[in-house]
Design goal:
single chain; 681 residues; alpha+beta; Rossmann fold; 5-stranded parallel β-sheet; 5-stranded antiparallel β-sheet; 21 helices; 26 strands
């Protein structure tokens, strides 16, 4: 039996305030959250939609340092841009605040203190890198060095971008501080940790047994983490930007941003309650409240494992009922990249396509990456506008209202005697509420949108089959019934599309001269009474021309060309002696077998014929090559590299690869069919 909830608290991931938001953010998190919230409001539910900017963390301090401004300057700039973008696209937050507010500082500090006082945190002293010149401990991204796994220079203290290996700063060879360029020293420091391992059994029961209804991509990622075993996770760090750790002996330490940010949902709720004379506690502490987190896949672990562990440890809060996480949206078959400017920025979109918010909302909803990564292309954007919004939805609404103006001066005619075809159409109209509702309740928004568009298709088919423009010459009474039913379908469209296209449904209501309808009215054939006057019709959508799309594609191509032009080859490494080079034994080889290394994104396990033997090599090429594509490939391999254990696999050698400025990899292969084992000199 489905539990009935008295109220709903809906959160969407806090966007990081070090840049504007793009279509990937909108498709992955904010449009799906807004669709669900608008649907709940149509149903008359008590729903609170919470958003805000995530304004702490190292990337913001790095950006501020590079620009010669303060971190507060950075977050002030982007908080304003982000908030306006959401407003422009109709993301209907009840509160959109920020984690630099005084309310948040107090709430996050109090949350930590409660865990601390209850003994829910563990305290550990460890050695971390310290920059003696800058006189501060170094966050992971402030340390670079040589990767111990692939020997690439410029690896960060948390990850090597070349091979994808997760690292700790202590793993780096020849580490250097990015602040001063000097070699850091090891120095003891004290931090507090959330002992996730102690909640492992609870989380397995709560997620894997009690929430099997969660989306497969969310459930699968949680299971992977839980199966691998959880470890304590630091909740504080040495930094001067963030919420201060509110205990004695914690001077110069702040709450780790991953710990501080989700508490922003609570602090923003408190702020909303203060502004509106409400009590915030039922929205977070009452068992008859349904809590939902809308996120992207990079935040699944934080919202399904870590934040629930924090909430459970605190003891006063409910746990999320569902976490509808989406995958990523690509752009023109390439990953969206803010650093490469390979993105469609929301604030720029409205300059090129003014008043077309719903066209983008529609396209992103239709291509929503619900269970796997999906792709946005400008050609598809054009096709969906012209072939669906203009030709189906806009066409039907325009015809039904224009014909009413033409035949009845805008007055809704009386419904007369129904034919069997009328009855069949109205019976089909009744089915849409259940179909759309079922899809929305299961977070299948693409499916729900498709059904809403099928309602517009029903209207078009009804008009095409009844042909009132012909029948009016012989049977005016029949036309009255046809136009009445057509207007009722139009009114139903204003209900069905409200979660998806709020700007468009407002226009439809303006034309029909009606108020916003309740969800329960969906399927009703009596929304608009006979004799009601509608207003003058106007077009809901207009065609997008090829020249508009070409301009957008050319803008992206120019970005790609600019990136290539501005990219310089990496500087030469330090000089090495000829004898050192001659120690390397590089041979031609053939890849015989290939498979992905479980629980990794970048690693392939290869069986390679070196001409001397057949050996196993683990290579970080999985984002550039599928396993089936590399079998039979001629490659070059360093065969006398000391064996290394990578993810429990002994790797015996290194495949040589070329890497371009975009991080794409290519094999170094002989251009002639040399036998395996041929020496590379």
């Amino acid at each position: 039996m489905t539990k009935e909830f008295k109220r709903y608290t809906v959160t969407s991931a806090l966007p990081y305030a070090n840049g504007p938001v793009h279509i990937g953010h909108l498709a992955g998190v904010y449009v799906p959250a807004d669709i669900y919230v608008r649907y709940l409001r149509e149903k008359g539910k008590d729903v609170l939609f919470v958003g805000g900017s995530d304004e702490h963390g190292v990337p913001i301090t790095i950006k501020a340092k590079n620009e010669g401004v303060t971190p507060q300057d950075i977050v002030n700039r982007y908080h304003g841009i982000i908030k306006k973008s959401f407003e422009d696209f109709g993301i209907s937050f009840d509160i959109y605040s920020r984690t630099t507010s005084e309310t948040h500082k107090k709430t996050a500090g109090d949350f930590f203190k409660k865990l601390y006082d209850k003994g829910k945190l563990i305290e550990k002293t460890s050695e971390q890198y310290y920059d003696q010149e800058a006189k501060q401990f170094l966050a992971d991204r402030y340390i670079v060095g040589t990767c111990p796994k692939c020997n690439a220079d410029g690896a960060y203290g948390d990850q090597c971008e070349a091979c994808g290996t997760s690292l700790s700063p202590m793993d780096l060879v020849n580490p250097k501080s990015t602040l001063s360029g000097s070699a850091p020293v090891k120095k003891e420091t004290k931090h507090w940790y959330l002992p996730l391992d102690k909640d492992e059994e609870f989380l397995k029961q709560w997620i894997l047994e009690e929430h099997k209804e969660w989306k497969a991509n969310v459930y699968g990622q949680c299971k992977s983490w839980l199966d691998a075993g959880l470890q304590p996770r630091a909740v504080s760090r040495d930094l001067n930007w963030g919420v201060p750790v509110p205990v004695e002996g914690a001077e110069g330490k702040v709450l780790y941003v991953w710990f501080d940010a989700p508490i922003g949902y609570i602090s923003n709720t408190i702020e909303w309650a203060e502004q509106n004379g409400k009590d915030w506690k039922p929205y977070w502490q009452s068992n008859d409240t349904k809590l939902l987190h809308f996120i992207g896949k990079d935040n699944i672990v934080f919202h399904c494992i870590i934040f629930p562990s924090m909430l459970k440890g605190h003891g006063d809060f409910i746990l999320p009922d569902n976490v509808p996480g989406n995958e990523f949206l690509n752009l023109e078959n390439d990953k969206i990249s803010t650093s490469r400017n390979w993105a469609v920025w929301l604030h720029e979109y409205l300059v090129d396509f003014p008043d077309k918010q719903d066209v983008l909302r529609y396209t992103l909803s239709a291509n929503m990456p619900e269970t796997k990564d999906n792709d946005f292309t400008w050609k598809d954007f054009q096709a969906r506008n012209n072939s669906e919004l203009v030709a189906i939805l806009g066409n039907f609404v325009n015809r039904s209202t224009v014909l009413t103006q033409k035949y009845y001066n805008g007055k809704v005619p009386v419904l007369g005697e129904l034919t069997n075809f009328d009855k069949e159409t109205l019976a089909e109209l009744l089915t849409f509420k259940e179909k759309i509702e079922s899809s929305l309740e299961s977070f299948r928004f693409r499916e729900a949108l498709k059904e809403a568009m099928n309602l517009a298709r029903l209207g078009n088919k009804y008009l095409a089959d009844t042909e009132p423009w012909i029948v009016v010459k012989t049977d005016e009474k029949r036309v009255e019934t046809i136009m009445n039913i057509s207007l009722q379908i139009t009114a139903n469209i204003s209900i069905a599309f409200e979660p998806f296209l709020p700007f468009t449904t407002e226009k439809i209501r303006t034309i029909l001269n009606i108020k916003k309808q309740n969800w329960d009215n969906l399927g009703s054939p009596n929304i608009i009474p006979a004799g009601h006057n509608i207003d003058k019709p106007f077009l809901l959508f207009d065609r997008i021309e090829d020249t508009d799309i070409e301009a957008q594609i050319n803008k992206l191509l120019a970005t790609k060309e600019s990136n290539a032009a501005n990219c310089k080859a990496a500087p030469a490494k330090e000089e090495c002696a000829f004898d050192d080079f001659m120690k390397m034994d590089i041979r031609t080889a053939t890849i015989l077998e290939a498979e992905r290394v479980p629980k990794t994104k970048k690693l392939l396990k290869l069986i390679v014929d070196t001409g001397i033997d057949k050996r196993t090599v683990v290579s970080g090429i999985a984002e550039s090559y599928n396993p089936e594509d590399v079998i039979g490939k001629k490659v070059s391999i360093l065969i006398n590299l000391a064996p290394r254990n990578i993810k429990g696999i002994e790797s015996q050698g290194m495949i040589l690869m070329a890497e371009n400025n975009k991080g794409e990899l290519s094999f170094i292969s002989p251009d002639k069919n040399f036998p395996n084992g041929s020496e590379v000199r």
